[in-house]
Amino acid sequence: MRNLTATLCLTLAVLLGSAGMSVSQDFQKGVDAYKTGDYATALREFTPLAERGHAAAQGNASAQYNLGLMYRRGEGVPQDDKTAAKWYTLAAEQGDAEAQYNLGVMYYDGQGVLQDFATAMKWYTLSAEQGDAAAQYNLGQMYRRVLQDDKTAMKWYTLAAEQENANAQSNLGVMYAEVEGVLQDYVYAHMWFNIAASSGHKDASENRDIIAKRMTPSQIERAQDRARECVAKNYKGC
After folding, report:
1. For the residues 81-106, what does the mean pLDDT come to?
2. How far apart are the C-alpha atoms of 95 and 112, rounded to whole Å?
3. Which is nearest to 168 in space by CA: 150, 198, 187, 192?
4. What percent of the chain has pLDDT above 90?
5. Per CATH, which fold does 17-115 belong to?
6. Are 214 and 176 in contact (CB under 8 A)?
7. What pLDDT does 101 receive?
8. What is the chain's alpha carbon radius of gyration, rounded to the nearest angstrom?
9. With 0-12 CB in 10 A as exposed, 13-18 as middle and 19+ as buried, what is 28?
10. How far apart are CA 169 and CA 115, in angstroms?
């Protein structure tokens, strides 16, 4: 009896493994089709995976996210923010960081859903905690502009800046240059402006030149040295 049980378990495991491979292959077909602009095929592959036998809460989160993206952009389907929010929500509830970020954007802007800053912050936070740089930056924006909490805003800007998010790098420059509650430091302000400017951030370039007029030549030299060191450290611990 023990051997029979073992055989049955092994058979079940093989079947489940085969099902997993089939799902993965179908999803990849959808991805490949989407990349080539064959949205009809992408939709056909993603939809059953997202619905998973009409139990959408247990559907494939990546397929749900991609359907949300297609409805949001109107790719292969009529543009529909409400339906996009539906699919993003299902994926976000399963922990998909990109879906959480995009859902946060929709709640912040009131697109497809009622505008709700608290809910936007909830989804941004969940995504940011998984390391999504765009969510970290937007969360920093909310703490700075909505909650007026500069200390926490700086925390999230820094995490995003460490992932080369130029907007976050530029905003760190602004905070070091101007914001009360943060130790004003023109050297660090120039450093972050300079780093963001190197990525083509126009405002950062302009702000770097403005802040340079308030600095001594030795301060500018120090800021440039720190910028080089920061890049060499992959923006960590700057």
Report:
1. 96
2. 20
3. 192
4. 79
5. 1.25.40
6. no
7. 98
8. 23
9. exposed
10. 28
Two tokens, residue 77: 């389907």
Asked if the domains at 17-115 and 131-238 fall in one CATH topology, the answer is: yes
Q: What is the mean pLDDT of residues 5-10?
A: 34
End-to-end CA gap in the chain: 64
The single-letter DSSP state of residue 179 is -
Using the predicted structure, report yes or no on whether residue 168 has a pLDDT greater than 90: yes
Report residue 179: phi and psi, to 5°.
-70, 130
Domain 131-238 has CATH 1.25.40.10: yes
What is residue 233's predicted lDDT score, i.e. its pLDDT? Answer: 94
| DSSP H or E segment with residue 205 | helix 202-212
Residue 24 has a pLDDT of 74
Give 52: exposed, middle or buried? Use CB within 10 Å, 0-12, 13-18, 19+: middle
Return d(Cα 78, Cα 75) in angstroms, integer: 7
Q: Where are the domains of the chain?
A: 17-115, 131-238
Comparing C-alpha atoms, which of 102, 112, 97, 227 is closest to residue 161?
227
Q: What is the pTM of this model?
A: 0.84
- Sequence-separated (6 or more) residues with CB below 8 Å from residue 238: 161, 162, 191, 192, 226, 229, 230
97-115 pLDDT per residue, tens: 999 999 999 999 999 999 9
Tell me the two tokens of residue 139: 């969360």
DSSP state letters, 42-99: HHHHHHHHHHTTT-GGGS-HHHHHHHHHHHHHTSSS---HHHHHHHHHHHHHTT-HHH
Longest alpha-carbon distance in the chain: 85
